[in-house]
Amino acid sequence: MFSKFMSLETERRDAIMNAALREFASKGFDEASTNVIAKESGVSKPLMFHYVNNKKDFFLFLYDYCMEILEAEYFSKVDVDEKDLFERLRQTSLLKMQVMQKHPWIFDFIRVATLTDSEAVNNELIERRKRVEKNSLERFYNDIDTSRFRDNLNIEKAKELIFWAVGGYAEKILSRVKGSEVDSINFDDIQNEFDGYLDELRKVYYK
């Protein structure tokens, strides 16, 4: 369906995709404006729709395309031989930041697509989300070494609390850098700050 779009010269294709990711991520599917996407990507709206068919199909295409990027640049690069939970979390956070530097709006867009209740796209996204969630959870966290956890802990609840803490920190960082130019974001400072939080979590949950 999107063969014409993917055959565009790279610069124009990327301009349209980045404008769309930014607009959808900022406003959600229903409120996003195709007029804004066309204007910010420097093409006319009729020409844009010649390549992307319609708003709904373009949104779903972008979701699938983003997941392909994450598979290639994030999921497949996680070292599953590392069994320590906090080292695994540190590793995944570094990979996320590397992806963010190349694709600034990708995680905002995926979050919007995950949380959307838009009737126009929600049904098509349900099965996609289930596959992604099952795949990532099983691949990343089912084989964690729990021997270093404190003996009196409910391990599964402890892991959930850690995931919530790390997820909350990730949301804080995304909110902090939203709208910023990638070059202005100090990723080293963010990683150092995150390492500090991981050290505190280790003190709480490890022997």
What can you tell me about this protein's structure?
The longest helix is centred in the C-terminal third of the chain and has 23 residues, at 155-177. With 207 residues, the chain is an all-alpha fold. It starts with a helix and ends with a helix. It is built from 10 helices and no strands.
Give me the strand/helix succession: HHHHHHHHHH
Q: How many separate helices?
A: 10
Overall pLDDT: 86
Q: How helix-rich are the residues, as a percent range?
A: over 70%
Short descriptors:
single chain, mainly alpha, 10 helices
Write the layout of secondary structure elements.
Layout: H1 3-6, H2 10-31, H3 34-41, H4 45-52, H5 55-73, H6 85-102, H7 106-115, H8 122-141, H9 155-177, H10 187-205
Helix pairs in contact: 2-3, 2-7, 6-10, 9-10
Put the structure in a nutshell.
The protein contains ten helices and no strands. By secondary structure, the protein is mostly helical.
